[in-house]
Description:
mainly beta, 1 helix, five-stranded antiparallel β-sheet, 39% strand, eight-stranded mixed β-sheet
Amino acid sequence: xxxxxxxxxxxxxxxxxxRGFSPRTLFxxxxxxxxxxxxxxxxxxxxAAQTPVVGAGDRVALVxxxxxxxxxxPVQDSLGPELSTRTYGTLAAGASxxxxxxxRTGAIYRLTYRISASDYTGDLFLRPAGGPxxxxxxxxxxxxxxxxxxxxxxxxxxxxxxxxNPAGSITFDDISxxxxxxxxxxxxxxxxxxxxxxxxxxxxxxxQVDDALTTVLPDLGSNATEFWADETGVTLQPGQTxxxxxxxxxxPAQLFAYxxxxxxxxxxxxxxxxxxxxxxxxx
Length: 283
């Protein structure tokens, strides 16, 4: 069953079949938006994008949008400008690293840093008070580290060195905090709140309580189109007003694909998208 956002459902017998179609072609003229079809290689079990989803039953913390085409680094190539006021140095207890501008509530950021030396006995953490991110203890061992974090408010102080009577210091060769502009989707609530990947066919399973994925989108205007496939069928919703900011993806029992674009679809595109979604949701 296909819902076209008109209050009725129609059977998509006449949906146009386009060999090799991908929604990526909808974005070929610089259109804004995102789409996800939950394939291996596009999903990670952690916000640091270090542990890929590879098997049925894996939890999903991060899904990369496919609207930007093949990138040499689909995460790195979709980041905004540097926002960290400190990008290197040796820090000791009480030190704080700040943002160069207020954080955007709901926005997703990628924090990366490289430590060359560390004998610090306390904690390196995202500060819960006066900071834009939820409290999280960070890795303080030598090496390169990466995290995706969602802003909960507009504060600017984000990383601290603390603990009970700590000693020693951490030497950072590089510290970077940059906003993610590619529309990647995350669930940052921990494994208990992350959807589960299943295959075949490739799809996410939600508990429909607290495990929805969220993304941050630019202003898509008042004539955007959303499309997705779930266990009930295919849905296309034209004429959507989508302002810049946080967007919660649909979280049905089963989600096979989701997309959003800042324009109406043509009749051939509606047929091609409908057919593509139906194929994805078939066993």
